[in-house]
Write a structure and sequence with these properties.
Blueprint: E1 2-7, H1 12-24, E2 28-31, H2 43-56, E3 62-66, H3 70-76, E4 84-86, H4 90-100, E5 104-108, H5 114-125, H6 133-143
Length: 147
């Protein structure tokens, strides 16, 4: 299994923890930055590379981390083929993988512990999309451009 990961300064320490923990669990992790902690960075600049990769390869999976998780979620969902979902619990992450086929997990570093984040990530990675007709239908509906 392979996962891409990126953050801003507020998510950097959690990104580093998750990267090490996932690698210990035999998950291949591609760190897409930042590679050094820069306290004045902006999440659109530090996460865009990962989002564009997922947009072009929607079967791939990624993790984005910022302080509250909302900024990276909003930014990611502006890109075609990206379905980013913010989670704060394993059960919630499981739900949006099962029903919404999310391909990017976003995490709020300022509101969850490292241990909880790792549990969320493991659950999300190990959950497969149900593929039920009603979920597929809804995903097709949101692919259509809006006004």
């Amino acid at each position: 299994m392979k996962i891409h990961i990126a953050s801003d300064h507020a998510g950097f320490n959690l990104k580093e923890f998750l990267k090490a923990s996932l690698e210990k669990s035999s998950v291949e992790v591609k760190d897409m930055g930042p590679l050094l902690l820069e306290h004045l960075d902006d999440y659109p600049q530090t996460t865009e590379k990962l989002i564009k990769l997922i947009s072009q390869n929607p079967a791939e999976k990624g993790i984005l981390i910022c302080k509250n998780g909302v900024g990276v979620t909003i930014f990611a969902n502006r890109f075609k083929n990206v379905r980013a979902g913010l989670s704060w619990s394993p059960k919630h992450a499981e739900s949006h993988r099962l029903e919404d086929n999310t391909n990017i997990l976003t995490l709020p570093a300022g509101f969850i512990s490292n241990r909880k984040a790792f549990g969320i990530v493991k659950t999300w990675l190990n959950t497969k999309f149900k593929g039920e007709e009603r979920h597929v239908r809804r995903l097709k509906q949101i692919e259509k451009p809006t006004a």
